[in-house]
Design brief:
The chain is an all-alpha fold. It has helices at residues 3-24, 26-64, 75-126, 132-140, 145-193, 195-209, 212-253, 259-269, 276-289, 293-323, 327-371, 375-379.
Length: 380
């Protein structure tokens, strides 16, 4: 038995022992993993922020400074500032349109509640003779205001005690979250301004630790993943804009209230693939029902129709086309990702499936070329 064979056997045995220990002490391993993730979370968050911000920032650098050579030294700083201004402007515009209208509608709804309660009570009294069972229930029911007030006071005291006991941990969690977010933002700035240098360092590490062919493969997969996730973000934003514009135009033609407001809300919530528009639908119905319940029902019908068009035609073609994933697999990725991990799974699984699809497609093509299989055998 040569030395290489002995080395492989030792590695396999060591791996089996480590795996057995990890399985038998799964709680300890999971606690260690959670502790490591909590320590790395600010940097993971910073990397995610940098990746998202880099998509529009890269386009600004590409088109705004392509012909202007004098500003090449300042392009990174100017692009970053312009990206932040654009994001802040969009969010500010959306909030200034959405929040005041929601507050105004909530106040109108609150003011109408007492009148609605009185109307219901009057209807019951007027129709008590026609509804003997309801009248008997009302007569037999005894409402002791004193006992109800005492029970409500006890409930409030117990809730207050629980709130006070958990207030310190809640404040600590909030402070920890804010600190992690600030660290992540600062880390994202460093990543964005030194992304070329970080890319070179990562490649150096890969080529230093892996064989050259495997390192080449890892670099190619990294480039493909970066391109796919970037195209996914761009396609998702484009699809949200198309969907919001469709609602604004059709609702304006049908003379429905709050057309612009609901279009903006649906466009913002549609950034969450597939399910986000349903959140916008709930907000839209809440707004319209205060004006006209009949129009709220028509809005629901309109939403279901547009959702079918968007889910079966627009979304698979816009988002699926931008990431190179066929429409059928986009819907499959949404279903599987949503079932396993909810909204996070939907956001991750679509580009992840696209990367796997591209890699598997290249593998199949290489195998076909290696085996010299003629196209007529599988294209016929």
């Amino acid at each position: 038995m040569d030395r290489n064979m002995k080395k492989h056997i030792i590695e396999i045995v060591a791996f089996a022992i480590i795996l057995y220990c990890a399985i038998t002490h799964l709680n300890v391993v999971w606690g260690f993993v959670c502790s490591v993730l909590s320590l790395l979370m600010p940097f993971i968050l910073g990397g995610a922020i940098a990746f998202v911000v880099n998509v529009p920032m890269k386009q600004i650098e590409k088109y705004l400074f392509r012909k202007n050579q004098k500003l090449q030294t300042m392009k990174r700083t100017v692009s970053y500032i312009l990206t932040l201004i654009a994001v802040a402007g969009i969010l500010t515009l959306a909030m200034t349109v959405v929040i005041p209208e929601l507050v105004r509608t909530a106040k109108a709804l609150t003011s109408q509640v007492p009148a609605a309660v009185e109307a219901v009570q009057g209807w019951f009294h007027e129709n008590a003779e026609k509804l003997p069972s309801v009248a008997a229930f009302i007569e037999e029911s005894e409402f002791d205001i004193t006992s109800i007030s005492a029970k409500a006071t006890e409930l409030l005291q117990s809730v207050a005690t629980g709130i006070l006991s958990s207030s310190f941990s809640l404040v600590g969690s909030v402070v920890s979250g804010i600190v992690s977010f600030l660290i992540g933002v600062v880390f994202s700035v460093y990543v964005l301004f030194q992304k070329e240098k970080l890319s070179v360092q990562a490649k150096k590490i890969l080529y230093a630790l892996l064989p050259e062919k495997k390192a080449d493969r890892a670099v190619a997969i990294g480039k493909l993943s970066n391109q796919v996730f970037s195209n996914f973000l761009s396609g998702q934003c484009l699809e949200a804009c198309i969907l919001g514009a469709m609602f604004v135009i059709i609702m304006s033609i049908l003379r429905m209230p709050y057309a612009m407001l609901i279009g903006i809300v649906i466009a913002l919530t549609a950034l969450i693939p597939i399910v986000g528009a349903f959140i916008g639908c709930a907000v839209g119905m809440f707004l319209i029902v205060m004006v006209s319940p009949v129009q709220a029902l028509w809005f629901l019908v309109l939403f279901l129709v547009i959702q079918q068009v968007e889910g079966n035609l627009i979304y698979p073609r816009v988002v699926g086309g931008s990431i190179g994933l066929p429409s059928m697999w986009v819907l499959a990725a949404v279903s599987v990702g949503g079932s396993l991990f909810g909204i996070t799974g939907i956001l991750i699984f679509i580009p992840l499936c696209s990367v796997c699809y591209a890699l598997f497609r290249d593998f199949v093509h290489k195998r076909l070329r290696k085996r010299k299989v003629k196209k007529e055998k599988y294209e016929a």
